[in-house]
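QA checklist item 7 of 12: single-chain prediction sanity check.
[x] sequence parsed
[x] length recorded as 117
[x] structure emitted
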Amino acid sequence: MRISARNQIKGTVLEVTKGATTSHVRVDIGGGQVVTSSITNEAVDDLALKAGGKCIVVVKASDVMIAVRRLHGLPSQAAVTNSSGRSTRSALHRRRRIASRLPLAPTSQFPPQRSLI
């Protein structure tokens, strides 16, 4: 099988939590890092994902956000959206919700934004 996503990380399934239509799959990618993905229950069954099983985490670059520092008080675990790009209630969305309630730093700490258009 050939795919366009170039970011492929070998891992071990830690846990599969099935919901009504989607499952949350936690994968240990080594170095104390865990990736959580939301995929359909059908995909979990098709891939026969179970705790302890080996897998490859495929991350498409357009589905990833980059940060240069960790906001105080936010969980360290990150989430990766599924390939459909649909929004799910994942750790990432909880981070955004928490971050929106944190006080803003004084604007003098950040350089002015330039429009690319």
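[x] summary fact logged: DSSP finds two helices and five strands in the chain.
[ ] second reviewer sign-off
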